[in-house]
TrEMBL record:
Family: Belongs to the F420H(2)-dependent quinone reductase family.
Record field: catalytic activity: oxidized coenzyme F420-(gamma-L-Glu)(n) + a quinol + H(+) = reduced coenzyme F420-(gamma-L-Glu)(n) + a quinone
Matches recorded under Gene3D superfamilies: 3.30.70.100, Electron Transport, Fmn-binding Protein, Chain A (2.30.110.10)
Pfam family, one: F420H2_quin_red
PANTHER family (UniProt xref): F420H(2)-DEPENDENT QUINONE REDUCTASE RV1261C (PTHR39428)
Tree of life domain: Bacteria
InterPro entries, A to Z: Dimeric_a/b-barrel, F420H2_quin_Rdtase, Split_barrel_FMN-bd
Name of the protein in question: Nitroreductase family deazaflavin-dependent oxidoreductase
Length: 355
Protein backbone atom coordinates (compact mmCIF):
# COMPACT_ATOMS: atom_id res chain seq x y z
CA UNK A 1 0.00 0.00 0.00
CA UNK A 2 1.44 3.37 -1.06
CA UNK A 3 0.62 6.24 1.31
CA UNK A 4 0.88 9.98 0.62
CA UNK A 5 1.60 12.10 3.69
CA UNK A 6 0.30 15.54 4.63
CA UNK A 7 -1.13 16.39 1.23
CA UNK A 8 -4.61 17.85 0.83
CA UNK A 9 -6.97 15.05 -0.22
CA UNK A 10 -8.13 14.77 -3.80
CA UNK A 11 -11.79 15.56 -3.15
CA UNK A 12 -12.96 14.41 -6.55
CA UNK A 13 -11.01 11.17 -6.85
CA UNK A 14 -13.05 8.63 -8.75
CA UNK A 15 -12.67 5.74 -6.30
CA UNK A 16 -14.21 7.67 -3.38
CA UNK A 17 -17.89 6.90 -2.83
CA UNK A 18 -18.77 8.15 0.65
CA UNK A 19 -17.24 10.74 2.97
CA UNK A 20 -17.41 10.58 6.75
CA UNK A 21 -16.87 13.86 8.59
CA UNK A 22 -16.59 14.45 12.32
CA UNK A 23 -15.87 17.63 14.28
CA UNK A 24 -13.00 16.12 16.24
CA UNK A 25 -9.29 15.55 15.57
CA UNK A 26 -7.37 12.37 14.95
CA UNK A 27 -4.36 12.41 17.26
CA UNK A 28 -0.76 12.26 16.11
CA UNK A 29 -0.38 8.85 17.74
CA UNK A 30 -3.25 7.43 15.69
CA UNK A 31 -1.81 8.90 12.49
CA UNK A 32 1.47 7.16 13.31
CA UNK A 33 -0.43 3.88 13.66
CA UNK A 34 -2.23 4.46 10.36
CA UNK A 35 1.13 4.76 8.65
CA UNK A 36 2.37 1.47 10.16
CA UNK A 37 -0.64 -0.84 10.32
CA UNK A 38 -3.10 -2.25 7.76
CA UNK A 39 -6.12 -0.08 7.06
CA UNK A 40 -9.75 -1.19 7.23
CA UNK A 41 -11.19 -2.27 3.90
CA UNK A 42 -12.29 0.65 1.77
CA UNK A 43 -10.54 3.49 3.63
CA UNK A 44 -8.97 5.89 1.14
CA UNK A 45 -7.88 8.94 3.15
CA UNK A 46 -7.89 10.50 6.62
CA UNK A 47 -7.32 14.25 7.00
CA UNK A 48 -7.52 16.37 10.14
CA UNK A 49 -7.87 20.15 9.93
CA UNK A 50 -7.31 22.66 12.71
CA UNK A 51 -9.71 25.61 12.77
CA UNK A 52 -7.90 28.93 12.54
CA UNK A 53 -9.75 30.20 15.60
CA UNK A 54 -7.97 27.51 17.61
CA UNK A 55 -11.21 26.19 19.07
CA UNK A 56 -12.18 23.16 17.00
CA UNK A 57 -10.89 20.53 14.62
CA UNK A 58 -12.47 18.58 11.78
CA UNK A 59 -11.63 15.16 10.35
CA UNK A 60 -12.54 14.33 6.75
CA UNK A 61 -12.31 10.71 5.55
CA UNK A 62 -12.97 9.13 2.16
CA UNK A 63 -14.25 5.59 1.64
CA UNK A 64 -14.71 3.29 -1.34
CA UNK A 65 -18.12 1.99 -2.39
CA UNK A 66 -19.51 -0.59 0.01
CA UNK A 67 -17.18 0.34 2.86
CA UNK A 68 -18.65 0.89 6.33
CA UNK A 69 -16.32 3.10 8.31
CA UNK A 70 -18.64 4.78 10.78
CA UNK A 71 -17.63 2.58 13.74
CA UNK A 72 -13.95 2.88 12.82
CA UNK A 73 -14.02 6.68 12.70
CA UNK A 74 -16.07 7.09 15.87
CA UNK A 75 -13.56 4.81 17.57
CA UNK A 76 -10.68 7.02 16.45
CA UNK A 77 -12.24 10.32 17.45
CA UNK A 78 -14.85 9.51 20.11
CA UNK A 79 -17.49 11.39 18.12
CA UNK A 80 -20.30 10.32 15.79
CA UNK A 81 -19.53 11.05 12.11
CA UNK A 82 -21.91 12.36 9.46
CA UNK A 83 -21.97 10.50 6.16
CA UNK A 84 -21.89 12.53 2.93
CA UNK A 85 -21.56 12.02 -0.80
CA UNK A 86 -19.99 14.53 -3.14
CA UNK A 87 -22.73 16.10 -5.27
CA UNK A 88 -21.19 18.94 -7.26
CA UNK A 89 -17.82 20.70 -7.59
CA UNK A 90 -16.47 23.81 -9.26
CA UNK A 91 -12.83 24.87 -9.66
CA UNK A 92 -11.47 28.02 -11.25
CA UNK A 93 -9.09 27.91 -14.20
CA UNK A 94 -5.38 27.60 -13.42
CA UNK A 95 -5.96 27.02 -9.70
CA UNK A 96 -3.09 27.77 -7.30
CA UNK A 97 -2.19 25.56 -4.35
CA UNK A 98 -4.76 26.21 -1.56
CA UNK A 99 -3.63 27.88 1.64
CA UNK A 100 -6.91 27.66 3.55
CA UNK A 101 -9.93 25.34 3.58
CA UNK A 102 -13.27 26.91 4.50
CA UNK A 103 -15.88 24.37 5.54
CA UNK A 104 -19.43 25.67 5.14
CA UNK A 105 -22.13 23.69 6.97
CA UNK A 106 -25.86 23.97 6.25
CA UNK A 107 -28.64 22.12 8.09
CA UNK A 108 -32.26 21.87 6.97
CA UNK A 109 -35.39 21.44 9.07
CA UNK A 110 -35.94 17.88 7.89
CA UNK A 111 -34.77 15.23 5.41
CA UNK A 112 -35.28 16.09 1.74
CA UNK A 113 -32.57 14.98 -0.74
CA UNK A 114 -34.06 17.03 -3.57
CA UNK A 115 -33.99 20.17 -1.41
CA UNK A 116 -30.32 19.59 -0.60
CA UNK A 117 -29.48 19.56 -4.29
CA UNK A 118 -31.69 22.55 -5.09
CA UNK A 119 -29.84 24.57 -2.45
CA UNK A 120 -26.47 23.64 -3.96
CA UNK A 121 -27.72 24.45 -7.45
CA UNK A 122 -28.92 27.84 -6.19
CA UNK A 123 -25.40 28.56 -4.91
CA UNK A 124 -23.93 27.64 -8.29
CA UNK A 125 -26.44 29.96 -9.99
CA UNK A 126 -25.26 32.78 -7.71
CA UNK A 127 -21.62 32.01 -8.50
CA UNK A 128 -22.38 31.99 -12.23
CA UNK A 129 -23.83 35.49 -11.88
CA UNK A 130 -20.60 36.97 -10.54
CA UNK A 131 -19.03 39.48 -12.88
CA UNK A 132 -16.01 39.94 -10.62
CA UNK A 133 -15.47 36.74 -8.61
CA UNK A 134 -13.39 36.96 -5.43
CA UNK A 135 -9.76 36.54 -6.49
CA UNK A 136 -8.89 34.24 -3.60
CA UNK A 137 -11.55 31.61 -4.25
CA UNK A 138 -10.18 28.39 -5.77
CA UNK A 139 -12.85 25.69 -5.57
CA UNK A 140 -16.04 24.53 -3.94
CA UNK A 141 -16.90 20.87 -3.36
CA UNK A 142 -20.51 20.44 -2.22
CA UNK A 143 -21.40 17.28 -0.30
CA UNK A 144 -24.93 16.18 0.64
CA UNK A 145 -25.53 14.06 3.73
CA UNK A 146 -27.03 10.66 3.10
CA UNK A 147 -29.76 11.34 5.69
CA UNK A 148 -31.04 14.23 3.56
CA UNK A 149 -30.61 16.97 6.20
CA UNK A 150 -27.21 18.62 5.65
CA UNK A 151 -24.90 20.12 3.05
CA UNK A 152 -21.15 20.56 3.51
CA UNK A 153 -19.08 22.71 1.18
CA UNK A 154 -15.34 22.00 1.25
CA UNK A 155 -14.08 25.29 -0.22
CA UNK A 156 -10.43 25.94 -1.06
CA UNK A 157 -9.04 29.49 -0.82
CA UNK A 158 -5.64 31.00 -1.35
CA UNK A 159 -5.48 32.10 2.30
CA UNK A 160 -7.62 33.19 5.24
CA UNK A 161 -7.46 36.87 4.40
CA UNK A 162 -8.82 36.30 0.90
CA UNK A 163 -11.95 34.73 2.40
CA UNK A 164 -12.32 37.58 4.89
CA UNK A 165 -11.95 40.12 2.09
CA UNK A 166 -14.66 38.40 0.01
CA UNK A 167 -17.13 38.51 2.91
CA UNK A 168 -16.31 42.14 3.64
CA UNK A 169 -16.70 43.14 0.02
CA UNK A 170 -20.17 41.63 -0.27
CA UNK A 171 -21.38 43.24 2.95
CA UNK A 172 -24.05 40.55 3.26
CA UNK A 173 -22.24 37.55 4.68
CA UNK A 174 -21.70 35.87 1.31
CA UNK A 175 -18.58 35.46 -0.80
CA UNK A 176 -20.18 37.15 -3.81
CA UNK A 177 -22.28 40.16 -4.73
CA UNK A 178 -24.56 38.87 -7.50
CA UNK A 179 -28.35 39.04 -6.95
CA UNK A 180 -28.43 35.27 -6.80
CA UNK A 181 -27.03 35.33 -3.28
CA UNK A 182 -30.29 36.80 -2.02
CA UNK A 183 -32.03 33.62 -3.17
CA UNK A 184 -29.43 31.56 -1.33
CA UNK A 185 -30.01 33.51 1.88
CA UNK A 186 -33.80 33.30 1.56
CA UNK A 187 -33.81 29.60 0.66
CA UNK A 188 -36.69 27.92 2.53
CA UNK A 189 -36.13 25.28 5.15
CA UNK A 190 -32.59 26.20 6.24
CA UNK A 191 -32.40 25.71 9.99
CA UNK A 192 -28.88 27.02 10.48
CA UNK A 193 -25.65 27.57 8.60
CA UNK A 194 -22.11 28.66 9.33
CA UNK A 195 -18.48 28.25 8.36
CA UNK A 196 -15.03 27.77 9.83
CA UNK A 197 -11.63 28.39 8.28
CA UNK A 198 -9.10 25.58 8.59
CA UNK A 199 -5.52 24.63 7.90
CA UNK A 200 -4.48 21.05 7.22
CA UNK A 201 -2.96 19.56 10.35
CA UNK A 202 -2.12 16.09 9.08
CA UNK A 203 -3.29 13.61 6.48
CA UNK A 204 -2.62 10.20 5.03
CA UNK A 205 -4.10 8.75 1.87
CA UNK A 206 -3.80 5.63 -0.22
CA UNK A 207 -2.49 6.25 -3.69
CA UNK A 208 -5.08 5.41 -6.36
CA UNK A 209 -4.89 1.99 -7.92
CA UNK A 210 -2.32 1.88 -10.65
CA UNK A 211 -3.67 3.09 -13.97
CA UNK A 212 -2.14 2.48 -17.34
CA UNK A 213 -0.10 5.47 -18.46
CA UNK A 214 0.16 6.04 -22.20
CA UNK A 215 3.47 7.48 -23.32
CA UNK A 216 3.88 9.88 -26.21
CA UNK A 217 3.04 8.32 -29.59
CA UNK A 218 6.17 9.98 -31.03
CA UNK A 219 8.75 7.19 -31.17
CA UNK A 220 11.83 9.12 -30.08
CA UNK A 221 9.94 10.76 -27.20
CA UNK A 222 8.61 7.39 -26.06
CA UNK A 223 12.15 5.97 -26.11
CA UNK A 224 13.37 8.95 -24.10
CA UNK A 225 10.61 8.35 -21.52
CA UNK A 226 11.40 4.64 -21.29
CA UNK A 227 15.08 5.28 -20.56
CA UNK A 228 14.19 8.03 -18.07
CA UNK A 229 11.80 5.78 -16.11
CA UNK A 230 14.02 2.68 -16.15
CA UNK A 231 17.08 4.55 -14.83
CA UNK A 232 15.34 7.00 -12.46
CA UNK A 233 16.48 9.82 -14.70
CA UNK A 234 20.16 8.88 -14.84
CA UNK A 235 19.60 8.47 -18.56
CA UNK A 236 17.29 11.12 -19.95
CA UNK A 237 17.28 13.85 -17.29
CA UNK A 238 19.63 15.78 -19.53
CA UNK A 239 18.68 15.29 -23.16
CA UNK A 240 21.19 16.72 -25.64
CA UNK A 241 22.28 19.07 -22.84
CA UNK A 242 18.79 20.31 -21.91
CA UNK A 243 17.20 19.50 -18.53
CA UNK A 244 14.02 17.49 -19.00
CA UNK A 245 11.26 16.18 -16.77
CA UNK A 246 8.42 13.73 -17.27
CA UNK A 247 4.92 15.18 -17.07
CA UNK A 248 1.84 13.00 -16.61
CA UNK A 249 -1.55 14.60 -17.25
CA UNK A 250 -5.08 13.26 -17.52
CA UNK A 251 -6.57 13.48 -20.99
CA UNK A 252 -9.27 16.15 -21.13
CA UNK A 253 -11.43 14.00 -23.45
CA UNK A 254 -10.38 10.40 -22.81
CA UNK A 255 -9.62 10.60 -19.08
CA UNK A 256 -6.52 8.47 -19.76
CA UNK A 257 -3.20 9.26 -18.08
CA UNK A 258 -0.69 10.49 -20.65
CA UNK A 259 3.04 11.06 -20.18
CA UNK A 260 5.52 13.15 -22.13
CA UNK A 261 9.04 14.55 -21.72
CA UNK A 262 9.61 18.32 -21.65
CA UNK A 263 12.41 20.80 -21.19
CA UNK A 264 12.08 22.59 -17.88
CA UNK A 265 13.44 25.53 -15.92
CA UNK A 266 13.20 26.46 -12.27
CA UNK A 267 12.12 29.46 -10.24
CA UNK A 268 13.09 28.67 -6.64
CA UNK A 269 11.08 25.51 -5.81
CA UNK A 270 8.74 25.89 -8.80
CA UNK A 271 9.23 24.22 -12.17
CA UNK A 272 8.63 26.03 -15.46
CA UNK A 273 7.45 24.65 -18.80
CA UNK A 274 6.71 26.26 -22.17
CA UNK A 275 3.75 25.16 -24.30
CA UNK A 276 5.54 25.89 -27.55
CA UNK A 277 4.45 22.93 -29.72
CA UNK A 278 7.43 23.99 -31.88
CA UNK A 279 5.61 27.20 -32.78
CA UNK A 280 2.55 25.43 -34.22
CA UNK A 281 -0.73 27.41 -34.31
CA UNK A 282 -2.34 25.18 -31.66
CA UNK A 283 -1.44 24.52 -28.04
CA UNK A 284 0.17 21.15 -27.28
CA UNK A 285 -2.10 18.42 -25.96
CA UNK A 286 -0.29 18.21 -22.62
CA UNK A 287 -1.04 21.89 -21.98
CA UNK A 288 -4.74 21.56 -22.81
CA UNK A 289 -4.90 18.52 -20.51
CA UNK A 290 -3.23 20.42 -17.67
CA UNK A 291 -5.69 23.30 -18.03
CA UNK A 292 -8.62 20.87 -17.85
CA UNK A 293 -7.05 18.75 -15.08
CA UNK A 294 -4.39 20.78 -13.24
CA UNK A 295 -3.53 17.96 -10.82
CA UNK A 296 -0.47 16.35 -12.38
CA UNK A 297 2.42 13.99 -11.66
CA UNK A 298 6.00 15.04 -12.32
CA UNK A 299 9.30 13.19 -12.36
CA UNK A 300 12.50 15.21 -12.17
CA UNK A 301 15.51 12.87 -12.28
CA UNK A 302 14.74 10.37 -9.47
CA UNK A 303 12.16 12.54 -7.71
CA UNK A 304 8.50 11.80 -8.51
CA UNK A 305 5.77 13.96 -6.94
CA UNK A 306 2.26 15.27 -7.41
CA UNK A 307 1.74 18.94 -8.18
CA UNK A 308 -0.63 21.51 -9.58
CA UNK A 309 -0.08 23.24 -12.91
CA UNK A 310 -1.23 26.72 -13.82
CA UNK A 311 -0.67 29.17 -16.65
CA UNK A 312 1.59 32.07 -15.74
CA UNK A 313 0.03 35.53 -15.73
CA UNK A 314 1.22 38.02 -18.31
CA UNK A 315 3.51 39.65 -15.75
CA UNK A 316 4.90 36.31 -14.57
CA UNK A 317 5.57 35.33 -18.18
CA UNK A 318 7.36 38.62 -18.82
CA UNK A 319 9.67 37.95 -15.89
CA UNK A 320 10.22 34.22 -16.41
CA UNK A 321 10.29 33.87 -20.20
CA UNK A 322 13.95 35.02 -20.52
CA UNK A 323 14.94 32.23 -18.13
CA UNK A 324 13.35 29.61 -20.38
CA UNK A 325 14.69 31.20 -23.57
CA UNK A 326 18.19 31.09 -22.11
CA UNK A 327 17.82 27.32 -21.68
CA UNK A 328 16.26 26.75 -25.10
CA UNK A 329 16.70 29.81 -27.39
CA UNK A 330 14.34 28.45 -30.05
CA UNK A 331 11.45 29.44 -27.79
CA UNK A 332 11.91 33.04 -28.97
CA UNK A 333 11.71 31.88 -32.59
CA UNK A 334 8.61 29.81 -31.88
CA UNK A 335 6.86 32.77 -30.24
CA UNK A 336 7.74 35.03 -33.17
CA UNK A 337 6.18 32.70 -35.73
CA UNK A 338 3.20 31.42 -33.70
CA UNK A 339 -0.15 33.11 -34.21
CA UNK A 340 -0.95 32.63 -30.50
CA UNK A 341 0.43 33.57 -27.13
CA UNK A 342 2.63 30.63 -26.18
CA UNK A 343 1.85 29.81 -22.55
CA UNK A 344 4.43 29.52 -19.81
CA UNK A 345 3.32 26.98 -17.21
CA UNK A 346 4.22 27.08 -13.52
CA UNK A 347 4.29 23.79 -11.62
CA UNK A 348 3.86 24.01 -7.84
CA UNK A 349 4.59 20.94 -5.74
CA UNK A 350 1.83 20.10 -3.30
CA UNK A 351 2.40 21.37 0.22
CA UNK A 352 3.90 18.68 2.42
CA UNK A 353 5.84 16.89 -0.33
CA UNK A 354 9.58 17.38 -0.01
CA UNK A 355 12.35 16.53 -2.46
Amino acid sequence: MTIDHNVLPDIGRSDADTVLVVEAPVTAEIFDELERKPWPDGLISVSTYAATDGETALTYTQWAAGATGREFLSGLTGAEPVEYRLYRSGTRENPPVPGCVVVVSVEFDGPDPQRQRRWVDTVFDALAGETDPPPGGISGHFHVSTDGTKVLNYAEWTDEQAHRDALARSGQGTVGTSPGWQRVQAFPGVRNSGFRRHHLARSVSVAPSAEEVLDSPTAWVAEHIRAYVETDGESGHFYQGWPTLLLTTRGRKSGTLRRTALIYGQDADRYLLVGSNSGAPTHPAWYLNAVAHPEITVQVAGDTFTARARTATAEEKRLLWPRMASIFPLYDDYQAKADRDIPLVIIERHTGETP
